[in-house]
């Protein structure tokens, strides 16, 4: 419909312009007729020659494959002699070749466009995707796959094994228990597509991945398989928390409730001696205390999450605060020796009540999780501008694989020793929140059967630094 560009030789600009714009020109006739057109005419006075001459023109259209549109046109003009048959045949075959080349270029451009579209589509999916073409062993991966699993290589050196197998091996290497995954991949390789999805944990249970495979068919033929990997850590965590919440509530609420219910019923129905009665009442009292702690923990977590929690910030001596707390413990725990090493004052900015709650949680865990007694050592030191509090026990210890989840809500180490010792799995999650609000850090080191050490660090209050300096 329009002349987009011209390549010319031996023609004036004016001639080219006329050819393109004049609808009577040979070029336009070739376009309309969709075949080569000739013309010969005698020209009298016109340029480019000053005397009458014959002018022979030929326009050969280069048509698209459907032969419906002219995509280019070869225009030749010569003076005096007509084009020979041989010349004409050369021009025609050239136009034919040109049309084929343009066609190939068009297909290639279309392919590139399609490929870009597919790449963009794949990359816009949040899930990691691996596509394997069975016949050619071509492997396509999207960007999320490379971000989620940087361990998967993009070039494959081992010529013995397919790219797919090598990529899957790299994935298997980061899966905690790869047996099920390896079976899943084997099924795909053997073209026996697994129907269900598979959930695996990777990198030491820190992330959960759901995997499912989809068959890609072209004309009823299974040409490739798409493997989709979805990060389901949040969902899995929520599910785990729900399960643990139900199990905690059923155990921690039911046990004290049934003992309160049982003892009160007993006392209502029967008369007991004063001493006996007192013993029962003591049990009811301590079980009620347990329930109160539980409910308070629940509420604390809930409030902390809804950011309703208010912190009353003051500057106080953390050594003095710990000392008061330990004095109370000293008298109430005979099986444990509580050692305290600190030289105060070490001033920090914070909410004193919350700080008490934090130390209390850690201290009571240290006592609770050393059922055979032992020494609990609390040491507070000034470490280059930070108050460092270490609470070290000689208790049952914590298995290495439990450490990353220890501060999660409702998380409790899953073994018989911990189960025997009651708890809600909320204490440490509350500790973590309090520490976070005080710009501090909390860490744990532990050896099973030897003991655990919890270390918390807070920035020392500015005023305290000045006092130390003046000292
Ligand atoms: P709870 O004690 O109510 O179960 P926490 O959040 O305080 O909940 O602790 C979570 C888990 O961490 C406990 O169930 C226990 O398995 C483990 N834990 C905490 N402190 C210690 C410790 N000092 N020694 C051994 N295990 C501990």
Describe this structure in words.
There is one protein chain. The protein is an alpha+beta fold and 471 residues long. It folds into 4 domains: 13-118, GAF domain (Beta-Lactamase); 125-231, PAS domain (Beta-Lactamase); 235-305, Helix Hairpins (Orthogonal Bundle), CATH 1.10.287; 314-470, Heat Shock Protein 90. The protein has helices spanning 13-21, 26-33, 85-124, 143-148, 163-174, 179-189, 233-269, 274-305, 318-332, 352-368, 416-420, 427-437, 462-470; strands at residues 37-43, 53-63, 70-79, 128-133, 138-141, 198-202, 207-218, 221-231, 314-317, 336-342, 347-350, 374-383, 386-392, 441-447, 451-459. The strands form 4 sheets. It has a 5-stranded antiparallel beta sheet with strand order 5-4-8-7-6, with helices on both faces. A 5-stranded mixed beta sheet has the order 10-12-13-15-14, covered by helices on one side. A 3-stranded antiparallel beta sheet has the order 1-2-3, sandwiched between helices. Helix 9 (318-332) packs parallel to helix 10 and helix 10 (352-368) runs antiparallel to helix 12. The protein is elongated, with a radius of gyration of 42 Å. The site of adenosine-5'-diphosphate has 21 residues, from helix 10 and helix 12.
């Amino acid at each position: 419909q329009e002349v987009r560009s011209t390549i010319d030789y031996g023609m004036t600009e004016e001639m080219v312009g006329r050819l393109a714009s004049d609808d009577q020109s040979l070029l336009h006739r070739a376009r309309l007729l969709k075949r080569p057109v000739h013309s010969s005419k005698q020209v009298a006075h016109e340029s480019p020659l000053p005397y009458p001459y014959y002018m022979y023109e030929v326009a050969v259209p280069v048509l698209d494959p459907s032969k419906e549109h002219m995509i280019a046109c070869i225009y030749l003009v010569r003076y005096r002699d007509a084009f020979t048959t041989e010349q004409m045949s050369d021009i025609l075959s050239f136009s034919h070749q040109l049309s084929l080349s343009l066609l190939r270029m068009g297909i290639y451009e279309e392919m590139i466009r399609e490929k870009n579209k597919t790449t963009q589509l794949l990359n816009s999916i949040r899930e990691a995707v691996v596509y394997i073409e069975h016949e050619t062993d071509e492997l396509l991966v999207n960007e999320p796959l490379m971000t989620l699993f940087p361990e998967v290589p993009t070039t494959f050196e081992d010529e013995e094994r397919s790219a797919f197998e090598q990529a899957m091996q790299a994935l298997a290497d980061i899966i905690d228990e790869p047996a099920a995954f390896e079976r899943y991949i084997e099924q795909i390789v053997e073209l026996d597509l697994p129907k269900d999805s598979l959930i695996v944990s990777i990198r030491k249970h820190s992330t959960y991945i759901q995997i499912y495979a989809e068959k890609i068919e072209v004309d009823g033929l299974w040409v490739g398989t798409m493997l989709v990997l979805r990060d389901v850590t949040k969902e899995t965590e929520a599910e785990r928390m729900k399960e643990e919440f139900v199990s905690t509530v059923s155990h921690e609420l039911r046990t004290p409730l049934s003992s309160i219910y049982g003892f009160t019923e007993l006392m209502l129905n029967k008369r007991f001696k004063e001493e006996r009665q007192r013993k029962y009442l003591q049990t009811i009292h301590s079980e009620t205390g347990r329930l109160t702690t539980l409910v308070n923990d629940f509420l604390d977590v809930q409030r902390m999450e809804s950011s309703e929690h208010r912190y009353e910030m003051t500057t106080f001596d953390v050594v003095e605060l710990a000392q008061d707390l330990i004095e109370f413990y000293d008298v109430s725990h005979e099986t444990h020796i509580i050692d305290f090493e600190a030289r105060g004052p070490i001033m920090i900015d914070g909410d004193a009540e919350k700080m008490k709650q934090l130390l209390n949680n850690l201290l009571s865990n240290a006592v609770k999780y050393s059922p055979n007694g032992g020494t609990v050592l609390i040491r507070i030191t000034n470490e280059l501008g930070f108050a460092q509090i270490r609470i070290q026990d000689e208790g049952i210890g914590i298995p290495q694989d439990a450490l990353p989840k220890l501060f999660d809500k409702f998380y409790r180490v899953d073994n018989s020793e911990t189960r025997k010792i009651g708890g809600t799995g909320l204490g440490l999650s509350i500790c973590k929140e309090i520490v976070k609000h005080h710009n501090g850090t909390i860490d744990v080191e532990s050896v099973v059967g030897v003991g655990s050490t919890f270390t918390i660090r807070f920035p020392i209050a500015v005023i305290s630094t000045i006092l130390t300096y003046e000292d």
